[in-house]
Amino acid sequence: MKRRLSKLNLFQQGTVIIALTAVIATSSVASQPICVFAKKAVKESVKKETVKPPTNVKIIKTSDSRLNISWKTYLKKEKVDVEIQENDGKYKLVKSTDKNKYRTKKLKLKNKYNVRLKARNKDKSSEYVYFYDIFKEDTESVVVDSQEKKVENGDTQKDGATQKGQLVDEQRTKIVNLGFCQYVVITFKGDNNMTNTRVSIDGVDVTEALTKVSDDGKVAKWELYKSQPAKMEICSKQNSNEKQKIVLSNNKSAIKPEVVKNTAPKYILTHGRLSYADYYLSNYDSQGKLRYTPKKTTFNVMNKENKEENKGKIKAYSPVAEAVPDKNAVNKVSGTVEIMFNYSTAEEKDWFDKIQKENALELVNFDQQKYVLNNHLKYEKSTTKHGKSTVGLLKIPFGQDNFTQNKRYYIRVKSNGNKSALVPIKVVQKETPQIKLKESGELVSGSNIHFQISNMVHGLNEPIEKVTLVNPKGEEKVLEHITDYFMYGNTGLFVLYNDVSRDGGRNNIPYAGVYTLKIVSDGFKDIVKKFEVQKGQNVNYYTDSKVRVDNVSSATVAPGGQGGSGGGNISANILFDADLLSNAMILEKIGLANDDAKNISNRFSTEVSCDYVYGSDINTAYEWTDYYDAVSESKLDGKYLRFSDYVKLKTTKGIKYRPSSLKEVLEDNLLGEIKDSFGDGNKDDKNDKENNSNEDNSKKEPPKVVTTSRQEQLLSPVMYMVSFDAKNLSPDSTQSAQKLHDYLNSIEKVEVNGVEYSRSTTYFSSDAINQYRTLNDPYTGGKDKTLALLEQGAIKEDQKNHVKVYAKGYKVLEFDINV
């Protein structure tokens, strides 16, 4: 009886308690909440304003074995007692404060600490009483090991520092409705993922039916079954005591799910308008192969390095090279690009040694499409000393075919029997651009500043990649194009905007003092300019050796994206992998989408119209409108209809339909090569494998090129006629003529100097004009022995033009046209 009275006396002081548990590790640990636990206070009686438990309680473990504890109180005049229990000892008062935070002293490794917070009124009024229940079985425990490991943000933490009951992010673990599908999305926390946990929905283990949304499985999904689920439980496979329960809905009649895989649609066929440039644009992977289908349907949401993809990645370094004007050179410019490779381990030596002395290097355009600009680069190969190490060295003369502009490129280096390396290089103009202030009065904070840049002539593309500004305090800021600065083409006028009256304007020069402007550009040396603002806020000047401007190698440069308008539009069939699309839409809805996911989701929602949906039987198409309507009607009835169940309905009708040509959306929202089939297997289906491999022995030999001739007629474009000898196709002259005819009709595209041109009947044009020749055109003598190529835009004068002809079912035909 005495014990009960003493407990009541404690709470009649107006005291409310919150209990929390934490464990301390002495390692450098990322600042993250350790545990927040509170039972709802039960109000016994209220006569005046109430005292409520502290809310929004957070405990953050620091790198020096302390706890940063913060909270919010209901009343400003409340005082909070912070009590800590070590292991199973007694609670000890460590601080009584009217502030909303407290930092503990250093605590011991591997000990369990319970934190209890008491909120009480300063006048200790007993006119109201709150009784706060603390249940020992609900107290969270944390096990900490002393072995350190790296965590995602680069700090270190102790292995096993996993919170019980904190396996997933509750805010991002929920039912997500995509319209055509609904999923339970699970977003794991810490080291947890879909492989080291078990997930149960309404008492049924559905782990085996989970599919990845993110590359690492930290975000996963499960498609709903017949009705909205009510509850979910996540349990660690390593420690069955670590569990977390999530309420998904208030559905009291949820149907227990069946564990079934592959229930969602496989493909969604849409149509949308594309420019001719985008429709006929080809995209290549890092190995130089055409891309047809996405290699994966998941996304890297944490921007973490893909260890599997980068396994065995070749390490290379290329210093910035200079383009030197040279009157004696063929293309009036010379210079040398150097690429150095690690040459220490047996694997590194084997890779470099197997680079052939000829025809192993390709010049590739620095963009997402990765066009080959020159596949016959000349180069020198050797090994040399670099510092204390030996490196493999490639020297590539600048000024070769299509290698004359000062800008960024890729060099693809092929090693026999090994994976190719795609090395970025940068060639800059030898002469450094000059920059001068173009002002008449003193420089004042809040006013725009004008500069004049000379010796920086460029084409249509904006060369500036990055602009930084270091203020008098030593703080560096990366400026935004248009918002903070703009360069007016080849006029050389560069404006640093500081006028806050502009729409979205901001003042980049608030202080009086010396500023340092740095401009990093593609194809030019860096420009650095100091200038002084005479009027502005005063600052304390100091020199900080740690503050420095990034050099060229640290500049963030993204290759140019897909695009291009003009030349008209075309209505194209655009195919979405349904899993890729679903994952993109899910990540956007839970706030974890990267740019690729956002762009794919946006393409689907704003740029196309849906036509058909396909399942595992890719020969049968279902009307999109019928499918979507059936799903919506079921939802109105409180049910959920999976696609796998939809196709079994008696009212569902499928048709045999596959489009004659289409482009598929890739994992980076680019479009794959034009194809006439899809879904013939996995992502590297037979059709794509055939088109991606030039060395496939199952392909037929192309005809041999005999001659190329230039033809020029009045009022007609200049043509280059390619004549063939078809004897290698068949010894019989009649059959060989037919086989040559078949070959010409099988041509899908032609590549000239690394640039691909679209097919218009049997004529290849760089600018898609409507004049074209047929196989029996009188210009060719009525013989099916020629292939016509436009000079305009394709064949370049005064150089050797390398041509590749791609025909379906044939090996790639390569030859040169010398003009």
TrEMBL record:
Full protein name: Fibronectin type-III domain-containing protein
Q: Where is the Fibronectin type-III domain?
A: 53-142
Q: Which domain of life is it from?
A: Bacteria
User: Compositional bias (Basic and acidic residues) at which positions?
Assistant: 146-158, 677-703
Q: Name its species.
A: Lachnobacterium bovis DSM 14045
Q: What ranges does the record give for the region Disordered, renumbered to this chain?
A: 146-165, 677-710
Gene3D superfamilies linked: Immunoglobulins
